[in-house]
Amino acid sequence: MPNNTGFIPEAFALAVAQLRQTTLRHELDFCEIIAPQQLAPHSYAAGAAINNSGSGIRGAGAVLDNNVGCGRFALLYDPAQRDIWQGDFKVVCYAQSNIEVELGTDPLIADVAWQWLATALASEHAGHTEIAGTATVTTSTGYGRLASSGSGSQLQIRASWTPEPQHMGAHLSAWGQLICLLAGLDHEAGVASLAAYNKQKI
Fold first, then answer.
1. Left if phi > 0, otherwise alpha if psi is -120 to 50, otherwise beta: which for 72?
2. What is the pTM of this model?
3. Which of 5, 63, 74, 176 could form a disulfide with 47 if both were Cys (CB 3.0 to 4.6 A apart)?
């Protein structure tokens, strides 16, 4: 559910409506997921992952268990945090993807990944302040019964920022672009929309 209490403020309801009408890339499967309850009195969350079919819609399990490229997006609303957030809203998100081991050893890959986030936000005209986050690279090697899996690396970005609320959908679209960039896809616009998913639920 997009809210944690019975009362839904008009500003939050409008923001959620904008998110549900946002155009996302056709390479992404997505769904609404349970929003974090402890971070704000009102919140909305979605998950997305790179798909194989280009369908643009799948169940939560397929979206959140994807190893090619996936992420979660949450929009928080709490006017009581205005002085801390410098606004009534806060975006909290992550995006991750498997990458080649050679790329995972590149000392600049974290800087490049963070720049991809900046690129995605700028390209979607997602105005924001108070941005913060981390870029993490992990490498693992299988042994024993997992020896056949060999070595692998994963790149993950966790970030938060205060969005300009006039065009809230731009922030969701930028997050989708980030997932695709981490997965090695070119930067481009797509045609899928969260509104299609919501129609399926009715």
1. beta
2. 0.82
3. 63
